[in-house]
Amino acid sequence: MTNDDVPIGRRVARWRVRRSMTQQMLADRLRRSKSWVDKVERGVRSLDRYSVIQELAHVLRVDPEVLLGQQPSTPAGPPDGVDDIRAALARYDTPQAPAQPPEELRREVGYAWLTYQHAHYRQLVRLLPGLLDAAQAARSPELLVQAYRITSSLLVKLGEADLAWLAADRAMTTAADNPILAATATISVGQALRAQDRNHLALTALLPAANRVLQPAIRSGDQEACVSFGDQTARKPLDHGGQGEGRGVGGVLLVQAALAAAGCGEHRRADELIDRAAGIAAQIRGYDDQHRTSFGPIAVEVARVLVAALRGDVAEAVRRHVTVVRREAWRRLPAEYRGAYLVDAARAYLQVGDLRGAARALVDADSVAPAEVRCRPLVRTVIADVARAQPAPAGVARLATLVGLTR
């Protein structure tokens, strides 16, 4: 049995014995009855208030996280080091970085992607200035675009939307006339604009990019079915590299466009774009996700939940959410992706007044990707809204304390 599987009452008993206390001694220090302590230790009485857990931890001289069976806490608040990223983006001359073999730099970029997808944001903040310098010195458009995209995605998380847009714009400039690189850079542009609530501008950027990457495959003698995208018509999607590469990038552009459309009130268009993204996902039969889009049928289903919530149909959003998180494919999504989505699900639960549902989603998000909950300024508001309940759910009360909120 792992530490996480041990009931909290048994942990209390273990630490009481380690501190050479009897049940009566612990009860006296807590100003409670011996019967209360006995019931807690046997699991007859549940500990569902964080304030009580804090009191027990204080008497037993342990961290509350130890009694809760949590791993060492991820520090709360935005990580230090954003100014170093800002300085790296402000350098227009070629940095005096040591030359690196292309394969070594490619491994570093891949490691940075994995760090992001595992939501290790503090570690990534430290990595990015050096990675940006190395990628600029290498003069590899592909690797530099990826470095800018990672930077932009992280900055969106940290509430630095303007700086995220700058990194995304740099990615667009670097991509030049490479259609796939330009399309992946547009994903970052759209996300940065949406983070600034500029959904109309995001839609204006995302939809044409989707149309371009899903353009007709011009092959002499082929009879290709037409599919419609927005107000334009294109022929059968072109892979631009095979094995679903172009389709995956085009599909995530459609998903982002749908979210932008929903964000600016174009609900019918959002539904149409999601349906088209679903059609693209159905065509993909396994491909190397080298552009880190995480696109596929489950990503489309996640987006349907978010679109439903954005158009105000929260009951449908909650119903779809319950189904999505039970699917096997859900567990294969990156931790960052799942954590961010669960925060959005918590906001949907709040809209229908389901504080318990919101609390479960936040606690699940913290379990999957702690930094997603503890490092993002946006999430503090969600935690505060849920923590206002009296009594606040134990898990959310703990999160409120960790991020420095008072109830």
TrEMBL record:
Pfam families (UniProt xref): HTH_31
All residue ranges annotated as the HTH cro/C1-type domain in the record: 12-67
UniProt-listed InterPro entries: Cro/C1-type_HTH (IPR001387), Lambda_DNA-bd_dom_sf (IPR010982)
GO molecular function, one term: DNA binding
Protein name stated in the entry: Transcriptional regulator with XRE-family HTH domain
Coiled coil regions, renumbered to chain: none
Organism superkingdom: Bacteria
Signal peptide: none
